[in-house]
Model the fold of this input.
Amino acid sequence: MTVDGALARVIRSAADRAARAGTETCELCAARVAEDHPHLYDTGPAEVRCVCGPCSVLFADDGAGEGRYRLVPRRRLRLPPVDTGVLGVPVGLVFFVPRSDGTVTAQGPSPAGAMRWEVDAAAWQRLAATVPQLAAMAPDVEALLVNTVRGLDEHWIVPVDDCYRMIALVRREWRGLSGGGRVWSAVEQFFRGLTERS
Done:
């Protein structure tokens, strides 16, 4: 029996119990989690999983899980404007995630969920050479989040789970062809929340 196989069974079992209970619980031990709880990035299916505080300690400094599970950091760092135009992504609300294998993905919200692009890794490396904070990002679990919609110019290094929350928010609030006024005020509130949590 491998550690990975046993841990995967525990996660599946916890997820089944949580679904039956209808409450948000740790996907490792099934304990209830606080509203603002830690997350693990599961490199297998590339998914974020909810964990409680005690279980998250197991994965600090890549402790358990043989590298498959990585603790999502909690830092939020506002950057001065970054010229992301060199990355060739034609949208103003997007996040960039450098991957452990050297690739970089960009994702942007849409009414149907996330749109995803592959970014030229060499272009990312050139940009990271000019912005040291980008070079120091934790692969897979931190993202460069950019909002240049409606005259804004916000650039953040955030935990990847913040980006998934933003995608869910846009999908929930989007109305009509252009999104409507409600979605953009919700996005502005989301970025104000980043400032409060940083």
Summary: The mean pLDDT is 85. The radius of gyration is 18 Å.
